[in-house]
Amino acid sequence: MFKLRLVMLLFLAFNVAKIRNYPMENVGVNSLYPAPQIVPGRPLIVKNYPAVENYQSDLYEVYAEPYSYDVRPLTAIALVQSEGEGSISGEVFFLQRHPPAGPVYVRANITGLSEGRHGVHIHQAGDLREGCVKLGPHFNPFLLQHGGPSDHIRHVGDMGNIEADSDGKAEFNYVDPLMSLSGGPRGIVGRAVVVTENPDDLGRGGTANSLNTGDSGKPLACGIIAYVN
Ligand SMILES: [Zn+2]
């Protein structure tokens, strides 16, 4: 079903105006269509993305409810290690109780950091052959600007900041509404978590880099996100 959803997402991104009786101008923010019945009892849901008032987007998510695929919880982990000789290490744990669209619970424990805030991001690639530097940009399947984890307009990979204490330890807990562990356009498994030298300004720095990377400096440590079990 998720595959169907993905196909329909792509289809709708280019053909939304062709849906019979539902012209483009009727699509509002997070609109819920009365829906053509593809299968009796399974309404077709059409949502504008991102769901932000006064934001013009041509991207729509389309799916039929209820889901009929396996919705058992998924878990994944990234073992984060220093770039080069550094002493940073830790774990970033991900849990999605209701894949593919439910929120992802993120819990991180990292040690060996310099005191203060450091950016944390998921980058597009998980290829560590050249350490933490060739992992592509922040994971950004919807081609939006950089932001913070609670912003509507953000990269899916924008996890914000962790704050290390005077012993270099940082703990981090939050719930992310965008990323998914089940593959598809928001899937993060197989990509990399990167901890940066500087704090992430969450796109609010006013500099050229702020809306790309949060001006968070070079990577200090990274790890590939992989399934648990
Ligand atoms: Zn970003």
Automatic annotation (TrEMBL):
Cofactor(s) for this UniProt protein: Cu cation; Zn(2+)
GO molecular function (one): superoxide dismutase activity
Top EC group: oxidoreductase
Keyword check for Signal: yes
Cleavable signal peptide: 1-21
InterPro entries for this protein: SOD-like_Cu/Zn_dom_sf (IPR036423), SOD_Cu/Zn_/chaperone (IPR024134), SOD_Cu_Zn_dom (IPR001424)
Domain Superoxide dismutase copper/zinc binding: 89-225
Taxonomy, superkingdom: Eukaryota
Enzyme Commission code: 1.15.1.1
Keywords from the named record: Antioxidant, Copper, Disulfide bond, Metal-binding, Oxidoreductase, Signal, Zinc
Reactions performed catalytically: 2 superoxide + 2 H(+) = H2O2 + O2
PANTHER family assigned: SUPEROXIDE DISMUTASE CU-ZN -RELATED
Protein family (similarity comment): Belongs to the Cu-Zn superoxide dismutase family.
Protein name per its UniProtKB record: superoxide dismutase
Source organism: Brassicogethes aeneus (Rape pollen beetle)
Taxonomic classification: Eukaryota, Metazoa, Ecdysozoa, Arthropoda, Hexapoda
